[in-house]
Design a protein that fits this description.
This protein is of the alpha/beta class. The chain is about 45% helix and about 10% strand. Strands 1, 4, 5, 6, 7 and 8 form a 6-stranded mixed sheet that branches. It has a two-stranded antiparallel ribbon with strand order 2-3. Strand 5 and strand 6 form a beta hairpin. Helix 3 packs across helix 9, helix 3 crosses helix 15 and helix 6 packs across helix 8. The protein is globular. It starts with a helix and ends with a helix.
């Protein structure tokens, strides 16, 4: 009787072990010779990049005549500018820190391959070749044309306000260190303890943009956000948004000079267009008599935050502040910080990876286009789902 009990238990254990082995999947990988799924079939229908891809393709279609003008009709075919711009757009949207890493992602990331327009077996570009072809787009000022094409889609979808706007500026840190900021008349360099990273003691030295310049990026200027903040080599990035949905309607990058934010605001105010009077909201840093007077001469009502502590008082009086629209503009103006936050964190513009005001300005404008695409997708998605 005892033997039968032992045999019974043993048999049950064997059966349990056998069932467990049969149900467990095998950890094996078998290489297949053919794949019958395209990258498009791998991307979900509700993926955010699908809507962005459609808007991007429409903008690139509008730019086709522009591409024809900057490419020669002879010679070997280069990288398609449409694929090049889609790849650059991915670099901004997914915060890819370098073009070499972007090429690596394109090699194995199916989502990236689909968005750019690669097939499964297409060879990825060499990073240096990609950078060389990108320079052609920079020389053709394609970023501004792409920005305008995306903005036109927003205008056709009635997402833009043509009456109420806000403006602000921010510092974009340059790709240059404080050690590169030396005197302009310096002809000889002292002995270096480390050729790659020498020790430089500039404490106590009077340094200014008039007497010093960066050897790494001569276009960068020493600037600080406000009193009490450290000075750093930077550019001044300015954007104008419309107050309905917070879309960027203009972008301008200038050298820092103490008045560059107001200078950029005036440049963009001139490009607003339209025949009627518009409003432009800004923070108290724009509350100067010259700036307010210039805006009013352009038929732009300055909804600037009052700075009563400024010598001479605020340039904005009760004739402007008494209106309800002034208070609304002050509330809407804060949304521009969302643009700067996205540009510096997602688009990687807290510290630019490019040198020279033209290149940095190109990237700044292109990143503003990417922000609009992301914002437009969110604004248009509910309407698509309702339809």
């Amino acid at each position: 009787m005892l033997k039968n009990s032992v045999l019974s238990v043993t048999f049950q254990n064997i059966s349990t072990s056998f069932c467990f082995t049969a149900m467990r999947g095998a950890d094996r990988q078998q290489n297949t010779m053919f794949s019958y799924l395209s990258p498009d079939e791998r991307v979900p229908e509700n993926h955010p990049l699908r809507a962005i891809r459609r808007m991007t393709d429409q903008a690139l279609k509008d730019l086709s005549p522009r591409f024809e003008a900057i490419y020669s009709s002879e010679g070997r075919p280069s990288i398609a500018p449409e694929k090049l711009l889609r790849a650059l757009l991915l670099q901004v949207l997914y915060t890819v820190r370098s073009e070499r890493l972007l090429m690596e992602q394109l090699d194995y990331n199916l989502l990236f391959r689909w968005f750019v327009g690669f097939n499964m077996d297409d060879e990825v570009w060499v990073p240096t070749v990609f950078s060389k072809n990108r320079d052609r787009l920079i020389g053709g000022d394609i970023a501004r044309a792409f920005f305008d094409a995306v903005l036109q889609q927003a205008r056709q979808a009635e997402l833009l306000s043509d009456e109420h706007f806000s403006v602000d500026g921010t510092l974009i840190e340059a790709w240059a260190s404080q050690k590169s900021f030396v005197r302009k008349d310096q002809t000889q360099e002292g002995p270096k303890d480390d050729p790659k990273n020498p020790t430089v003691d500039f404490h106590g030295e009077q340094r200014s943009n008039q007497t010093h310049e960066s050897k790494t990026d001569p276009d960068a200027r020493l600037a600080r956000k406000s009193n009490g903040h450290e000075a750093k080599l930077a550019y001044n990035g300015n954007v104008t948004i419309e107050n309905r949905n917070g879309l960027v309607v203009d972008a301008e990058l200038l050298q820092c000079n103490g008045t560059s934010e107001r200078d950029g605001a005036l440049l963009m105010a001139e490009r607003l267009g339209g025949s009627g009077r518009v409003t432009l909201a800004a923070d108290k840093g724009y509350d100067t008599k010259d700036f307010v007077q210039e805006l009013r001469g352009m038929k732009v009502t300055p909804h600037v935050t009052q700075n009563d502590k400024r010598p001479g008082g605020s340039a904005i009086d009760g004739r402007t502040t008494r209106h309800r629209g002034y208070k609304v503009s002050q509330l809407k103006q804060k949304r521009i910080e969302e643009v700067f936050g996205w540009l510096k964190t997602v688009a990687g513009l807290r510290k630019t990876r490019h040198r020279g005001i033209f290149r940095v300005g190109w990237v700044f404008t292109f990143a503003a286009s990417a922000y609009n695409l992301v914002r437009m997708r969110k604004l248009l998605t509910p309407a698509v789902q309702a339809a």
